[in-house]
């Protein structure tokens, strides 16, 4: 089936088109540049930007895929989790399209989309097959989640999530502390080059057994952010220059260490020999490097989709929509709405 997928949960307006597990188009517009002026994502600006970008992004996707809107068999859309206003724009647009075309609507979980996107890899790279069960580490500006996926449509378990800041958010906040612009991830990466990752022993949140957490594999990054802030203040109080390269490298190492250690501990403890990565923070080369080393040492098969499919996009939502259609699932109701806190376990709303 030919599926159109719409994604508007954060600052990317994504429209993707797939036929089954074949990727036909993945058009994306981002309000990142506009958001950068405010040093972070402003929800109202994101919602308005989606409204403006949706029609041109839809046109771009149809042109890229070489299909007409009337060819579409079903419309899939992210209904959560994410920013409420931003989600509402996508859900409203998807409903309008589905009704106008007389096609079914499938409301899809954003996090499950980050996993399902792996189905879209090229056929010569094993495309169309999701090797399960797998642990999935999803790290972006809005989420940091560790999932156990036994079945994409019916069995997704939350192993852990951040109890405070998301990993990408921590990069953004620490960059700001160091006087670097938004988005902070690439800035920290650049600043860390030449720095000593062992220069400063920053804390690794929620790694000790005594640490209180709701889930076995929860994450915490606010203590790390505070430790960086205190370190910077102490330098300034002593009238010394802040060693930006060392701080950036040590901070990045702390984030990468805790993300990869927990993901591989989950694989080991649950006896799952597969780990899938997703989310915008996967752009971090050090994260990919340490994950690769540690996965190899643990005998875990690591999957890293291409970066364009790791960041938020419509194709990942279309991919899950196609699975729902092919499994003969009933469409979502016309009364389905945006749910900013949709749990990872709810694949279809
Ligand atoms: P969502 O949370 O809904 O997935 P988002 O827009 O917040 O969406 P992405 O667009 O997937 O997230 O990723 C953006 C985040 O990734 C930002 O926080 C940014 O700082 C971070 N990031 C980008 N490049 C890097 C990098 N090289 N290293 C670390 N973090 C990075
Ligand atoms: Mg983004
Ligand atoms: Fe995301």
UniProtKB/TrEMBL annotation:
Origin organism of this chain?
Answer: Pseudolysinimonas kribbensis
Q: Where is the Gcp-like domain?
A: 23-318
Does the UniProt entry include the keyword Ubl conjugation?
no
The domain of life is Bacteria
Transcription is among the record's keywords: no
The top of its lineage is:
Bacteria, Bacillati, Actinomycetota, Actinomycetes, Micrococcales
Keywords carried by this UniProt record: Acyltransferase, Cytoplasm, Iron, Metal-binding, Transferase, tRNA processing
The record's subcellular location field reads: Cytoplasm
The cofactor(s) it depends on are: Fe(2+)
Q: Which reaction does it catalyse?
A: L-threonylcarbamoyladenylate + adenosine(37) in tRNA = N(6)-L-threonylcarbamoyladenosine(37) in tRNA + AMP + H(+)
Q: Which family does it belong to?
A: Belongs to the KAE1 / TsaD family.
Residue positions binding substrate: 138-142, 172, 185, 189, 284
**Signal peptide stretch:** none
Stated name of the protein: tRNA N6-adenosine threonylcarbamoyltransferase
Which stretches are transmembrane?
none
User: Which positions in this protein are listed as binding Fe cation?
Assistant: 110, 114, 312
Which gene is transcribed and translated to give this protein?
tsaD
For this protein, the Enzyme Commission number is 2.3.1.234
Entry function: Required for the formation of a threonylcarbamoyl group on adenosine at position 37 (t(6)A37) in tRNAs that read codons beginning with adenine. Is involved in the transfer of the threonylcarbamoyl moiety of threonylcarbamoyl-AMP (TC-AMP) to the N6 group of A37, together with TsaE and TsaB. TsaD likely plays a direct catalytic role in this reaction.
